[in-house]
Input
Amino acid sequence: MNYDGWSKKVEDNGAELSNEYFNMQVGLPYSEQKIHELEKKGEELSKYFLDHFKEPEEVYRSSVAGIAGGKTYQLLLKLHDIRKTDVKSEKHKFRDQPVTWTTWRQFVVSAEDKARKEVYDEFVNLVPKISPQIKEFFGTSKVIFEQHNLTPLQNYLLGHKTSYEKIINFLTELRDGVKNKYWQEYTNETQRMLGRPPEYYDDLYFMRNVIFNDLVGKFKGANPLDCVKKTLTNLGLDPSKIHVDDADRPNKYPSPFCSSPRVPQDVRISYKAENPLNDTRSIYHEMGHAIHETHVDPKLPYHERYLYSMGLAETFSQFIESLVANKTYLVEELKLDPELAEEYVRRIKVMELMTVAFYTGNSLFNLKMWHDNVPFEKLDDLYAKEQEQSMNLQIPGAYWQLHHILPENLLYVPSYLLSQANVCEMVEKCQEIGGERWWNDKKAGKYIVSLMKPGTRSPMSDFSNVKPDKLIKELMDF
Output
């Protein structure tokens, strides 16, 4: 079997597997037996590549990750199941059922302060129920990477074409550059909404909903899905291939996500309504992922269509989402009242500051855990330390194990922040091409497609020279 034959088998197997996982995450029927069979086949295909090929280099690394995934996916399935069944409140209910990990974010939007704290503390105390799976996931993955003279950290850095030192410097400068402004705005908002300074249980996922609560009733008439499709069409892009699952099923994954069984032919997004304003950002974000993947050149080889770095993937989602933080866009395209749009943008900016604070802490934790070979038993302490420096709060260290990304991805979260720096460059270029209302300019659209079409060879895929300066300026400018 030559490389082309191998890559077709891998793509076909991946498409079937992606479909099963999509169904699992959106609460539709799926087959654990089929997942097992497809994961096993994927692992065998990864081994075949390692036995018969050495190039392309990114496929070698992906094959190592594939073997690790084949050895650990059952741990992650078990983690999903335990979170749904065992991480639940004994004190509080949501829609007449105990609050669980999957309904936690929806519950906190309207819960009383005391109830939010109680559920948060309950869930932190339940972390030992999920820790064994998380520990084994990381430990098994590390061993498999080392067997092939790699580490998860090396794989991440090579994929982003940068170094550990450069990413650490970028994140540290970003954290320090916004820290005072973040804390001032965060404190102002909790005083406004709750009449007190921030507490550890006022986490990002509570704040990003409740901060908009009093604006929700004023958000009338706009359909964010229709609006983002119209904008993409005005740019000369084609959103018609993207399938949207917006059903609210009890077992549906609480976070919005994009799934791509086949690039560029079969791309899907899923979201679970929380509140209209926040849903708008989620829809724009996931449509950014989806429009990217539907505009990758279908003639590219397998690895150039699928194996782009997480930083590159997040670049386009963050880019499309950035439209929602533009007052002119909100007034003219989403038809918001100008005063409402201005206040909405202000609060989005506050949440961007909070997101950067939260994710710089997450990212520095995630990078250092691999670089310094921190034992699993010490990770909670490391997380608490990094988040205290980034967020100025004493957050229970075990919280990271309840996160929706950190415990089930080897290394991902720095990509959100690297991509935001990319977005600043892209928006600046679009403004040069199409002016203030660049989202109506097809020349700006052609520029965007030129970054999407090359897949992994996109000009935005190299993070070796990424700087935080423009991002810091944009975050502070309100």
About this structure: The chain has a mean pLDDT of 94. Residues 27 and 252 are 5 Å apart (CA to CA).
